Structures are given as structure tokens and as C-alpha cells.
Amino acid sequence: MKENQAICNSCSNENCFIKKHIHLPNMQSYIEKKHSFSCKKSQQFIIEGAPIQGLYFVQKGKVKTVKTGINGREQIVRFTTNGDTVGFRGFGTSNRYLIGAYALEDTVLCNFNNEVMVDILKNVPEFTYDMMLFYAEELNKSENNIRKIAHMNVRERVIDTLLYIHRKFGQTNDLINLDLSRKEIADFAGTTEEQVTRVISSLKREALIKTVGKKIGLQQINKMKSEIMEHKYV
């Protein structure tokens, strides 16, 4: 990773944990200890099982987090973008990362090492409280997702994945603002590349989506939502 200078005061990511608490009197001294790095597309910056080096915050770019599953296959567990937190799974409870993380495009990351993060959590109560709520919400999302996926067939899982990616990254010119291979979609949906290809072909024939190269655009979002509504789509 290449050292980069990302300034918190001028950052536009209002959802970033650091930016949301920058107004607190004792946060400035911690912000001065932050390190920023740039990653090239496809570069891995967190290795699953490696010693924890604090938390990362996406200043600009897109990231996927992965976890090794059955037979050593990587399962994508989360996509993140500007302002999101990466590497929080295991922080505070383990000395090693429980996930790996890759840049999906050229990305700028802000990092606070273990010592700085522990100091913030011990000395900035408002930050600590909001972090606790963040962990609770992430746990709730994970539990709901497990229950949902367990009752979905392959087509429903692919539709759910496409809706999630659309919700997360939006569309420009009727195409989702994220380039993902069919394998990456499969790794997130918990299925195979071949099954994803078949479902996408079916959705295209039904005019629910369109494709331009690897890019996918959702054309009938409400119909896609209604197809998985029984699984309590949110």
C-alpha cells in the first residue's frame, strides 16, 4: 500500500465514524495519529488470520471483505464503500483478523492502529457508545441474513444480491456502479458461477435486468423486490 494523505476535516463522508465524531474536543489528537493509504484495484490489504492492525475506514473507493469457507473457498461477506468501516470483525475479541479484504477499485483507506483505537474507546464515551450500537446493528443484520438465505432458492439469492448491490452503490446510466464478475456474485450469493450465469440469463429474458459486459443494470426493481418479499426484503 502507498502512503496517502486524507484529511478528516475536509472529508465528505458524513457517515464515517471518525468524521461523525470529529467535533468532540479530544478527537483531534487521535486524528493526528491516523495513517492513510492508497490501494490499487484487486490489492489485498487485510489477510485473514493475520495480526490485527486496527480498523480501516474507506475514504474513497470500494472494498469486498471475504471469509474462507468449506474446501478453502472464499465467501464474500460484505461490500463497503465511502465512509464504511472495514476490519471490525474480531477487533477487541481476537488478535487476528477474522476476514480478508480486497480493493474492488483504486481505493484510499484511513487506518487507526490498535493502540489508538483502544485509547479512543476508553476516553471518548460518545464514540464508544456509537460503536456499540454499530456492532449491535451489524450482528442483527448478520442474523437476519442467515435466516433469510436459509429459506431462499438460488434465483432468489441472486436477486437478493443484485438488489443489495444496487442499494449499496446505486446506478448510473441504468447500470450498477460496481464491476463484479459472475464468480464474485456467486461468492456473495452462496452459489456457483454457473448458476449465477443461468439466473442472470433468465432475468435478462424477462427484461428484469440488462447487461453491458460485466456490468448489470436493474430495470424492474419493484418486480424483483416483490419476488423475494416473503423473505422480508428491506
From TrEMBL:
<dbReference type="InterPro" id="IPR050397">
    <property type="entry name" value="Env_Response_Regulators"/>
</dbReference>
<dbReference type="InterPro" id="IPR012318">
    <property type="entry name" value="HTH_CRP"/>
</dbReference>
<protein>
    <submittedName>
        <fullName>Crp/Fnr family transcriptional regulator</fullName>
    </submittedName>
</protein>
<dbReference type="Pfam" id="PF00027">
    <property type="entry name" value="cNMP_binding"/>
</dbReference>
<dbReference type="InterPro" id="IPR000595">
    <property type="entry name" value="cNMP-bd_dom"/>
</dbReference>
<feature type="domain" description="HTH crp-type">
    <location>
        <begin position="152"/>
        <end position="225"/>
    </location>
</feature>
<dbReference type="Pfam" id="PF13545">
    <property type="entry name" value="HTH_Crp_2"/>
</dbReference>
<feature type="domain" description="Cyclic nucleotide-binding">
    <location>
        <begin position="37"/>
        <end position="87"/>
    </location>
</feature>
